[in-house]
Amino acid sequence: MHLTRIEEDMLMGRQGRGTQLAMEIIVKLGELYGADGLIPVSQAHIDGCLYAAVGEAGLLFAEKLDQLGAKVTIPTSLNATSCDVDNWREHGVDPAFAEKSSQLEKHYLNMGAVPTWTCAPYHFGLIPRFGEQIAWAESNAIVYANSVIGARTERYGDYTDICCAVVGRVPEFGLHKRENRAGQILIDCSYLDLKPTTENFAVLGYLAGEIAKDKIPVLKGIPSWVSGDHLKAFCAAIASSGAVALFHMTGITPEALDEKAAFQGRKPLEVYELSQKMLLEAEGNLSNTCTCHVDAAVIGCPHASAAEILELAKLMVNKRVKKNKQLWVYTSRSVYSWLSLKGTVDELKEKGVIFFRDTCFINTSLGSWEFQNAATNSAKYAHYIPGRTGLNAVFANLERCIDMVAE
Predict the structure, then answer these.
(1) For the residues 227-232, what does the mean pLDDT come to?
(2) What would the 3-class secondary structure string for the chain be?
């Protein structure tokens, strides 16, 4: 690989051993993918701060970088962590688990990352512009940045993400290059009766991911009224059922003015025509039990937006959570703060709704809660809940989730 003089200095340890270790990893990554050199990135989003996901290895890696004096050189946000930083005791998190999570958090903060603690960094703060070269981890955020915003990132994962942030560079490969962002398969949605709900687009994303696998799909026939929250649900789902980092929707996403632009003038490798029956089957597959007797409804994967929580509040008018049930909302500190000022948070708390900031239902400690069945309107939660928590998952729209736990 061709390196600039500054990059060579990093690799030789002239900017410190922490920077050297990070650069060694980034150079090795570039060599593995056949990159000719490195390119600068303007910001990073770190997924490796989830102790439940990275475990002791992730903690030791962050500790090593921190001890070696590594510091981020670009604005760097942090993904959700493994417990509500301030309220983990109230949520029944095991103290030993919380301590490990706290240690991991401190190492990333010591290296200069911003404590955003959210899987939806596109809601506020360091939002990239179209065409901006970035290094984002967290699957739904990667897809959203690439597809909805039109920024450019590869699928950076744990350990490589913080290294990118430390050196401020990534290998010039994959989706960082325009020619690699062309659509590969066409998914025709023209015959679907799509509803303006996040759940409907979550199901569509899940089906599209199963079809696309690791290819770049182009979807046509998506209504122009599609919203940011619809696309957020779609992004999370397509990255759960498939290894998708980028999609195009003709007339909707910025690199898909039309079909020709989405494919960069090439022809699709395959064409798929979706039917309403396929969509209904995909929706059914998201539940691994048919029961409507659930212990909890969990909302907010990715973290709930202000609009989604306001919709929840509207549906909770004249209702409250049953004494033997739980209604949990996962969101970011920023959204929580905005809606606290508005009074929505207190209003919902009075009705028995519990808010979790900073964290994620499938990446925390749930040992003290004797749950068996959980309802959710998130395709990502429904996909991961059985394997990650041992619970049964019931996929339903927001209104039905509420009806299962409230009266």
Answers:
(1) 98
(2) CECCHHHHHHHCCCCCHHHHHHHHHHHHHHHHCCCCEEEECCCEEECCCCHHHHHHHHHHHHHHHHHCCCCCCCCEEECCCCCCCCCCCCCCCCHHHHHHHHHHHHHHHHCCCECCCCCCHHHCCCCCCCCCECEECCHHHHHHHHHHHCCECCCCCCCHHHHHHHHCEEECCHHHCHHHHCCCEEEECCCCCCCCCHHHHHHHHHHHHHHHCCCCEEEECCCCCCCHHHHHHHHHHHHHHCCCCCCEECCCCCCCCCHHHHCCCCCCCEEEECCHHHHHHHHHHCCCCCCCCCCEEEEEEEEECHHHHHHHHHHCCCCCECCCCEEEEEECHHHHHHHHHHCHHHHHHHCCEEEEECCCHHHCCCCCCCCCEEEECCHHHHHHHHHHHCCEEEECCHHHHHHHHEC
Q: Tokens for 164, please give them.
A: 């990118």
pTM: 0.97
* 121 three-state secondary structure: helix
Specify the amino acid at residue 37: G
Helix (H) or strand (E) holding 19: helix 17-32
pLDDT digits (tens, 9 = 90+) for 282-292: 999 999 998 88
pLDDT attached to residue 96? 96
Start-to-end CA distance of the chain, whole Å, equals: 63
Residue 62, classed as helix, strand or coil, is helix
302, 236 contact by CB (below 8 A): yes
Residue 378 clears pLDDT 90, i.e. is over it:
yes
Question: CB 52: neighbour CB atoms within 10 A?
Answer: 20
